[in-house]
Amino acid sequence: MSSIIKKLVVINLVLLMFIPQLTATTPPKEEFIQTCTSTREFVTTLEFLRAHKEFSVHESDAKKIAHFVTTGCTGASARFIKVVNLLTKARLSIVSALNLAREFAISDDTTTDAFIAIFRLSYLSDVLDLDVKTSLDIAQGLSVRFSGHTKKILPDFTALVEFCMQEKGLGLPVPKCALLAESISKLGENFKDPISGPFIKLYHFNRSKKGPGLPLFDAIKVAQDVLQNGPAASDNFIQAFKYATSKGGLGLEAKQAVKFAQKMAANTIKNSKLP
Question: What is the domain partition of the chain in residue ranges?
């Protein structure tokens, strides 16, 4: 037996000695199937609909709705009931309320809680006092129609609305603030970090003498365009503008420096293409 073959035999024997240990220390990951309290969800939903005679839901329709709710697994009936109660108090038609509640029954608790909180913030007279339709559009857009991290959406939306309404902020009317806060919040959909802080920081920079000193609406637009590339694009823009306008950097005028900074911000996302 050649020396090479002997070495291979020894190596194989050593590996065989360690295989059981490796198997013992690194067991395969177990995948569990989620189970649901389907009967409880059905009964809770059906009894809720039966109890509210004012809804005028036919028994057969109530059973169909209850069956559908069970597909949302554990907690579906609670989500369904919370949304129905919220929307009927806002005097939405029962048909519309039930249809919307079905969407949240098959969603999750975080998404449903975001919807309820944003709707209340938008609709209540002592807060934004928007009409039902606008409040629903905003709340749905930032919850069930939002594919990002819903845990950050409420803090982002709230912070942006507050900043927009303050005199030291944007000082804009309530309806404009609500819609602006919604559109900026959506810019963070594909990113894990909050978007409100970077927007406020970039807006202040755009308005300042250290920045391009833009008019209010231009400062907002530039910030929105930049943040399409995510929260981190804010710092890239600011750093690029400062370098572009410095004598030791590119020595550009403000207008050209903004264009350069926008190009740098566009490359915040890996493999993004320049406009």
Answer: 43-107, 110-186, 193-268
